[in-house]
Amino acid sequence: MSGLALAAIGAAASLYAYANYSIGSAVSMGPGFFPFYLGIILAALGLLISTVSIGTTVLDNVNTSFGSLVLIAASIVLFGFVLTQLGLIIATVMSVTLATFASQSYSSHMSRILVAVSLAAINCLVFVLVLRMNISLWIV
Amino acid sequence: MDSLTGLLFGISTALDPVVLLYCFAGVFIGTFIGVLPGLGALATISLLLPLTYHVPPVMGFVMLAGVYYGAQYGGSTASILLNLPGTPSNVVTCIDGYQMTQQGRAGPALFMTAASSFVGGMIGVLLLIFFVNDVAAIGLKFGSAEYFSLMCLGLVTASTVATGSRLKSVAMVVVGLLLGTVGTDLDSGVPRFAFGITELLDGVSLVVLAMGLFGFVEVARSAKYAMPQLYSKITVQSMLPTKQDVKRSIAPTLRGSIIGSFFGALPGTGPSIAAFSAYSVEKKFSKNAKKLGTGAIEGVVAPEAANNAAAQTAFIPTLTLGIPGDAIMALMIGALMMHGIQPGPLMIANQPEIFWGLIASFIIGNVFLLILNIPMIGIWVGLLRIPYHYLYPAILTFIALGVYSVNNNVFDIYAVAVIGVAGYMLTIAKFEFAPLLLGFVLGPLIEENLRRALVLSSGSFMTFIERPISAGFLVAILTIAVVVVVKSTKPQT
Fold this sequence. Notes:
The complex is a heterodimer.
Chain A: H1 2-20, H2 33-52, H3 66-86, H4 88-100, H5 109-130
Helix pairs in contact in A: 1-2, 3-4, 4-5
Chain B: H1 3-14, H2 17-35, H3 41-52, H4 57-82, H5 93-102, H6 106-140, H7 144-160, H8 166-181, E1 183-184, E2 191-192, H9 206-222, H10 236-239, H11 243-265, H12 271-285, H13 298-313, H14 315-321, H15 327-338, H16 347-350, H17 352-373, H18 377-383, H19 388-407, H20 410-428, H21 434-456, H22 463-466, H23 468-489
Antiparallel strand pairs in B: 1-2
Helix pairs in contact in B: 1-17, 2-4, 2-17, 3-4, 3-9, 3-15, 3-19, 4-5, 4-6, 4-13, 4-15, 4-17, 5-6, 5-13, 6-11, 6-13, 6-14, 6-17, 7-8, 7-21, 7-23, 8-21, 9-19, 9-20, 11-12, 11-13, 12-13, 15-21, 19-20
């Protein structure tokens, strides 16, 4: 599966480079030369990986949790979105609160909020006061 | 400038109070994140990269380097106390280190680890000082063909000595190389794989890539799980080793330092491989070989001396040839280049204060680390009591703010999420990222040298074989490839 996906990426990159950039020749390489051949190599490797791994499941299920992946991804995107709209403090509180749901170690909503608020304070202190980053703290 | 004058000059740079402060900050942060399992030097250095834009390069690099070798010290603490390696290069330390903890000898294990790390680190620095000029002199003779072949050799060794599937690592190198082509082609000015996105015209940002793959993925993978509890208490009195501990440690520490220095200096291998090799050498040649695995001090000091020595000698190819030995060195090179400094044989002549200042700071940093890791060990042990579920949301916001600070552009935060999710899928399928990052940093350099070499040879690929040094590197690549294929086709007995 993963091998086939890589092969597809390699083939796509190669085709895209072929269609859009001039390949040139060895003596005067065009912008497409390097990506074109890399794509072919990747496609070949991908196919090789998928043939070698036929019939074997190598998926690492022990540490896999799509739930926390989605939560973590959502909270970082939320952070970026809110940061420009409502400032650092609200962004930190919102995204940290969301991120805490990825863990099962929080016993109450109160502890989630507490962590979120204290991290907002730490972020303000570290990034704005100490490192003097140019971010708005509060609703602009 | 010969090594001694260079070093003296460097010491005068490194003793500047502000540089000293950055050096201390670096090794302190390095120990901190080394102690915490899950947050490695790679993630931390990518987190700190944006900060180095705001300070002069010397201070930035003294700090980043401090994080790197400081993490080697700190990483052993969790290995010994919790059986959880703080960083990948401390994996073997778990075997005998945790056994010693269970036998109630955690104190001496921690003490001897710090001492052997110091010896290993210092031997590594001395070799580094001794060899940089010679290696740089060789590097000056290199043309594009040699650089191309040497970089290929680095990529091949990096992917074949990886812990997981070699085929997958090679594929990751190629993915890295392809990612490196994104952005405006320097030669023709054509934007490649930008798909009309303005932010991609400058290429994929190294900081975003590193944070996505190493920071985000780590948080997403470990958020759900609680860390094991730590019960033992460590005091300085309980750390004092017996005379026998010291006596048994001397030879393994020296052996480990030599092995580590060797593997550190090779392009493509780094501290992890050094530690593994040092442990297997002890298993064969140590006087107490039979006790290894049951809590023998030799099994703790040898790999720890090795990974610290390797962390120092890794700077030889990085600084003198501009070729990174592992993913962290690739990050360092990326950081240097962002400051407009081209690591390579000319760096010694052009930026002596950065070059020698950095090297001199290693000596000072190692002394700091000795102090941090013996009298102040209690702080670090206490750190292991902080529950991870308080830490990961903090790491997450640090990642977001860190990437945002580079360009003040929210696009970079979203890019981290995209790369992170893709990276998560790759870890599930057991792909590793270190080869990818190495390929990414070396990609543009490889392409440029390939192009130049071929222009000079009027398009003949024979140039790589006709030039003796380049041919030598290619022979090395071929040998490795043959060994790997033979090994993997041989039936397992």
